[in-house]
Amino acid sequence: MEVRLRFSISQHSRDEQLLKSFIRYLDCGNVYNQSENVLDFRVEKISDITEKLIPFMDKYPIRGIKQKDFEDFKK
What we know:
By secondary structure, the chain is an alpha+beta fold. It has a single domain, classed as Endonuclease I-creI. It is built from 3 helices and 3 strands. Strands 1-3-2 form a 3-stranded antiparallel β-sheet. The longest helix is centred in the last third of the chain and has 14 residues, at about 45-60. It is globular, with a radius of gyration of 13 Å. The mean pLDDT is about 95.
């Protein structure tokens, strides 16, 4: 049995450059095709999540209901 942790953001394929900018800024993650018109930015490496993604998200918090989901994710 294996446990994995994954953070992902899905966007329409027209926003591909936005998702790729996350990779450049955070120096981690990849962009994957979820379907014909949907792309995912994913971070799966635990050290990238704890050392890069979470500090970024703490500095620039999500506004709205998704912030609660992120707080649960951090736990």
